[in-house]
Amino acid sequence: MRRVALAIALALLATVPYWLGNSYYINVATQMLIYAVLALGLNVLVGYAGLVTLGHAGLFGVAAYAGATLLNAGHGQIVAAIGALLATLAATAMFAVLALRGTGLGFVMITVALGQIVWGIAYRWISLTNGDNGISIGTRPSPFGLSLVSADALYWATLVVFLIAVAAMAIFVASPFGAAVRGTRDQPRRMTALGYNVWLTRFLAFLFSGFWSGVAGLLYLYYNQFVSPQTVALSASAEALLMVIAGGTATLLGPIAGAVLVIVMKDIASAYIERWNFVLGAIFVVIVIFMPEGLVPGSVRLWRWAIGHLRTQPTPVADERA
Amino acid sequence: MTLWLILAVNSVTLGGLLFLLSAGFSLIFGLMRIPNLTHGSMFMLGAYLGVTCIALGLGFWPAALLAGLGVALFGAVIERFVLRRLVGAELAQVLVTLGLSFMVADVCLMQWGGDPIAVETPPVLRGATAVFGLAFPTYRLAIILIAAVIAAALWLLIDRTRLGAMIRAAVDDPAMARVVGIRVSHLFTVVFALGAGLAGFAGVIGGPILSVYPGLDQDMLPLALVVVILGGTGRLLGSLVGSFVVGFLYNFGQALFPELAYVVLFLPMLVVLVLRPQGLFGRVTL
Prior knowledge:
By secondary structure, chain A is an all-alpha fold. Chain A is built from 15 helices and two strands. Chain B has a domain at 17-216.
């Protein structure tokens, strides 16, 4: 059953360019995949490690800016991609060392500050980042000689990266490391008593999360061929966080659903609604107040509740909350 | 020489404005344990309300007071009807304030448009005043004076009144404060409204210097954040010192290292966070 569903989902995803046809919608689908990669990466921190960050757009942006700068300096695509990811990892390590001094709200505030520093550099350090005008790149890469210029080709390339990201997350969740990360979220003291290095576990989770944010940032650069300070603004971090929280933290499907929801709202609904930011804020408020566990687990709960009421003998649902 | 002097005066002025903004932010943080991410929006909303009041024919000062009151009311409503629903879930409260800040920003954009609006300096305070044989812009001196008066008033309120004693008690130990019969949840509403009102008032009197524009909220919020991290939460003295430090860092950073102004601003904050997580004067650890 599960395998059939997975196969159908894969087949649907792979054939998107055929049944969507219009290159505008294919580009929207590509955006969804890119942001799903970002949300999956962010979910490692927010969901599994329990560390809510509002600076992740900074890491996303570091990858995009580093990639663009290296490409414009005349380096090849491979050098640019590897350099961008290394730069992101270095920035992530710095973020992690500083932010992990606090937990809870202290952590949130330090990540806000770090994100704002990245924004400040992007906006003001004009000789490096070209300020408000942003940086454009000339070409998309052609991995293995395949050109990514067309919307379809870029979609498939993004899909491959997205599937690798999903697989990496599935492996991460099932691995002892994933269990250790969840342990540091729920019982940091007990984890310390058991001999785990809580700080190091969180640090590695941060690096893993930052790496995928960097991958998403690089994909974003290839998709847009342009990066500007808007990419690293606080509202971009909030959007990414909304994707994770809206979909459901600490689930594999949640961030993907959240990314799809936010991009649909932003790209399609904003054609009809002018006030995207208002809608973004309103969704945030409504979800946090009424469905704090996110859309995916929330819908599952509502579904079970409805099923339970439809049956003549309602079966009690086990409470799985810790 | 004159350049340095002008920079110094501008820094002190910005410090005064920041104090009005961050005193409330710091008290809210100290009492409710949440960074109120709508605080920048309160500043901007106050400024826009002031603009409208002035356009309706009110004088500058009545407009500033009215805008401050309006924003205080708005803050009380948010605390009472939104944040109160999420008591105990601090993270949810922070996220809700973030969502609300987007909503406020968009409503302001819808209502007042995207162009920056200049606020006229009150006629009496235009021009320059000579102090010690040097000419200073009168309005900036007035802001420094207002900030000093409000700082003194807040200090009296917190340090000398019954309400202030209750607030201090609730900041230090909310559970014990409840046990001795203080309605801490009422204090939440009062302090949130007071903080919002001060921010709104600061928005109007900052208008002639900063003008009012979309994104003003996003410009001010990080400054308030830096002030509170530098100065510590729930402490007026911390906000006061932090505000002037940030005022100087911001203005001198802009003038001396224009490309790295934000790095100059945020770097000291990171140093403080790493070396002294409770802030320079604070007792509550973040």
